[in-house]
Amino acid sequence: MIRLEYDAGAAALIRALEEAAKAPNEGGTSRHQLRMDRAVIALLRVPAPSAVVPELLRESGVWNPVSRDGLAVYVDGGSQTVMSGQGYLSLLDTTTAIRRLAEREGAPAITEWHVIRELIHSRGQELANMQLYPAVLLRRLEEELDIREPTVAEIARTWCFCDTAFFLEGKYFTKVAWHTVLNLNPVVLVVPPAIMDELDDWRSNAQRPRQQKRARAVVREMDQLTGSHPHGELVGTETAGVELLRIGWEPRNIPEGLTRTLADDRLVASALEHRWRRPGLDVQVLTVDRGPYEKARRLGLQAVYLPEDLRRDSDKKAESAG
After folding, report:
1. How far apart (Å, rounded) are the C-alpha atoms in residues 12 and 192?
2. In the structure, how many helices (H) and strands (E) does the chain have?
3. How confident is the prediction along the chain (322 residues), in pLDDT tens digits per residue?
């Protein structure tokens, strides 16, 4: 199993809890235990922009400001004027549960969402007693991280994250009923920034005229298809059941064994992250190269290695560079 790393936001939250646990805890039994009120105030005080959660905890709809400010005074040694958290948080048990949650989900990394989800699961009533509204906090965090349940229409599609070689060496992308020949649901060909950048580079590569022509044709058609639509909106192609989506975000997290310097690795990371952000989607990597195919499968993603009979279109019209 690939060992998941903490992303920057989650790491900042865990560090804050560990530092708070080093302070004297009246009644605590070890340095790995932390009084609940101190735990939440520690999260509140994580400096921006290290994490999203501290900013959310400052929203009045997430945490009653009177209770929040009163609790901060009490934690700093002042008089108790509001209800404080009862009991202690075991950091060892909590971090273990957070990791297991992320692993069960097939997440690309351990995120702030996993930290907060576990705290709500194990200590939701204590958070509510401090007039912090767990359901609202989780909903706001999901909005900030772009996590949501997919629609029925989205679930009915296969979301194919395509590598550069697919567009350069496969049959022309708009002229094949990919869902039919690959036995998939209606297909969305997803183009992340890493692949768009490589296609742009190929357009100016005069040393490889064959790939240069195809890249120019592909990028021009993508521009024509998406030009009149808002960025990030699905667009249809000339083939029913085949749509195109150009996304503008890079993956937040790069799993162990991948690197940001390789476009194919960023492609696989983008697919993994999209599947996590939209639980239940059929997300696959569509490639002509063995590298991304094997990496995707190692990380638990479905992948399609394009068969030979679906390689390079002989249609000269699709090859024209104009």
Report:
1. 28
2. 15, 8
3. 578 899 999 999 999 999 998 876 555 556 678 889 999 999 999 998 889 999 999 999 999 999 999 999 988 887 766 555 567 889 999 999 999 999 998 899 999 999 999 999 999 999 999 999 999 999 999 999 999 999 999 999 999 999 999 999 999 999 999 999 999 999 999 999 999 999 999 999 999 999 999 999 999 999 999 998 998 899 999 999 999 999 999 999 999 889 999 999 999 999 999 999 999 999 999 999 999 999 999 999 999 999 999 998 544 444 444 4
- The tokens for 141 are 């965090």
pTM (global) more than 0.90: no
The alpha carbon of residue 143 and the mean position of all alpha carbons in its chain are separated, in whole angstroms, by 12
* 258 CB neighbour count, 10 Å cutoff: 23
DSSP labels for 76-93? TT----SPPPPSEEEHHH
Q: Are 274 and 283 in contact (CB under 8 A)?
A: yes
Domains of the chain in sequence order: 8-145 (1.10.1780), 152-319 (3.40.50.1010)
- β-sheet bridge partners, residue 245: 190
Question: In angstroms, rounded to a whole number, what is the distance separating the alpha carbons of residues 285 and 297?
Answer: 9
Which one-letter amino acid corresponds to residue 135? A
Give the number of other CB atoms < 10 A from CB of residue 234. 15
Strands (DSSP E) found in the chain: 33-35, 88-90, 158-162, 187-191, 235-236, 242-246, 282-287, 302-305
